């Protein structure tokens, strides 16, 4: 039995680049619209959902928080689409990812904590943990593919691999 | 000179049905996902953005509040797409709309105030005021069409028509 803890990283565009995009104003440019009443941070993440009969959908998610520490036992990927989550409650959540591929190497896992405002857009095929709210109930908007056909592969870690995730309170804010 | 005040209505799915959809959990059903950790309010508003070379885009908007009372002088419509706005700050905003058509009759104007959590999706061709934050700075996610070609028609009310909007504090919460 190998029990290890994943290091938890702050979510930055550079660190997350292999996996997708961060939906945030920080570090991005805007242009003014509506007679300068609004700053528009334009087209922050590719919505890649049209494969097959796919179309984009807007859904709301109400997420229960996970207890920490948490064992990472399963990841999923969407072979036909991207998937975006944007928080509607200003609270951090956890983002656990691994690069696209037929399998997931435990050494390729990365774990991030958001700053409370950041959303993420997982690129098609990127392995990721299901939505990981922490602390309290949290609401999200999801922008993903509505369509027929299988679009979710699961990867289960072998039982002897125990990769845990925890968070230091100082990392949340 | 005709100066009148628009009645301000609470935003409900029924009242807004001629213009689009409300993106909200209230009154909608969900199904559980992620081993019952998440309630998914699925596919709440049609994203109609593929006309021409259109594709869906996710943008963030940082909106200055308007001073009230406000004269409604101009509306816009998007002939090629829907447009969704979901608030990231829990504050009400105003939604002023008129039915699709070649022109806007002042008598067809409707004005709504959101409950602070509701988002809206304007149906293609629906006349609407630009984003109307009130009170304080407010952040929104916008899901709309990225693509070439003209996609914004403007309608200017004649100068002698002055249709005003105001809000009673009791209507905000």
What does this structure look like?
The first copy, chain A, has 173 residues and is mainly beta. Chain A has 2 helices and 17 strands. In chain A, strands 2, 10, 11, 13 and 14 form a 5-stranded mixed β-sheet that branches. In chain A, a hairpin with a 4-residue loop joins strand 4 (31-33) and strand 5 (38-46). The longest helix of chain A has 4 residues, at 13-16. The first copy, chain A, is globular and about 60 Å long. The model of chain A has no long low-confidence stretch (mean pLDDT 94). Chains A and B meet through strand 5, strand 6, strand 9 and strand 15 of A and strand 5, strand 6, strand 9 and strand 15 of B. Strand 6 of chain A pairs antiparallel with strand 5 of chain B, so a sheet runs across the interface.
């Amino acid at each position: 039995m190998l029990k290890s803890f994943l290091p938890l990283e702050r979510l930055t565009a550079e660190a997350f680049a292999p996996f997708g995009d961060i939906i945030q104003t920080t570090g991005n440019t805007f242009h003014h619209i509506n007679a300068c009443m609004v700053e528009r941070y334009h087209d922050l993440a590719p919505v890649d959902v049209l494969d097959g009969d796919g179309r984009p959908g807007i859904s709301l998610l109400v997420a229960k928080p996970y207890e920490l520490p948490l064992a990472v036992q399963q990841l999923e990927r969407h072979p036909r689409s991207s998937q975006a989550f944007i928080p509607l409650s200003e609270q951090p959540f956890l983002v656990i990812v691994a690069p696209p591929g037929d399998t997931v190497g435990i050494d390729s896992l990365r774990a991030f904590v958001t700053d409370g405002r950041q959303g993420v857009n997982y690129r098609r095929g990127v392995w990721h943990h299901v939505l990981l709210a922490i602390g309290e109930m949290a609401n999200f908007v999801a922008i993903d593919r509505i369509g027929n056909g299988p679009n979710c592969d699961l990867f289960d870690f072998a039982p002897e691999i125990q990769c845990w995730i925890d968070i230091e309170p100082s990392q949340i804010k």
